[in-house]
Amino acid sequence: MFVGTTAQKPALDEVLKTAAEENCQVDALDVAGARRIVPVLNPEMFEQAIFEPKSTDIDVHALHGGFLKVFAGRGGEIICDAEVKGMQWADGAWHVETKVGSFAAPIVVNAAGAWGGRYCCARGCASDGTDPETAHSNSV
Ligand SMILES: Cc1cc2nc3c(=O)[nH]c(=O)nc-3n(C[C@H](O)[C@H](O)[C@H](O)COP(=O)(O)OP(=O)(O)OC[C@H]3O[C@@H](n4cnc5c(N)ncnc54)[C@H](O)[C@@H]3O)c2cc1C
What we know:
By secondary structure, the chain is α+β, with helices and mostly antiparallel strands. The chain folds into two domains: 2-55, no CATH class; 79-139, no CATH class. Helix content is 35%, strand content 20%. It has five helices and six strands. The chain starts with a strand and ends with a helix. The structure holds flavin-adenine dinucleotide. Residues 83-84, 111-115, 119, 122, 136, 139-140 line the site of flavin-adenine dinucleotide.
């Protein structure tokens, strides 16, 4: 559920517009309608709400386990706790130095999440500006 004040109506209207464009079912609710679903909502704190009745949780652990199973089934090997210390391009491949050894591959995917900017530094490229402290504080 999204709730907002009258001043936040443009943002809520944007959510409604996007939902309609993406064929996603959402219900616009007034304060009484929102409190029927979430009674603890303070009626003095918002004037309108949008409810997405079909939203659900994802079992992240099961999903992740499924990805790992498919990856292993295709011959992939997962090496954990292998911080990248540096990378160099030579002879048609990236040569990656990690704390558990060296690896070479023609393509490297930077999947370091919020640490992606620091990882860029490790391979001598310009950072994209991603910073773990900022990214995490924004998330929280
Ligand atoms: C408190 C919190 C709550 C969240 N809740 C939700 C939620 O409810 N729903 C949702 O959709 N999203 C949520 N998120 C966001 C979600 O966790 C991230 O968007 C997601 O994990 C990003 O995935 P990723 O694979 O890109 O990066 P990550 O999951 O961060 O993975 C990056 C990996 O790279 C590794 N790494 C970093 N640097 C190096 C290096 N130099 N060498 C080797 N490895 C390295 C890290 O150790 C890490 O394992 C939440 C985030 C936080 C912090």
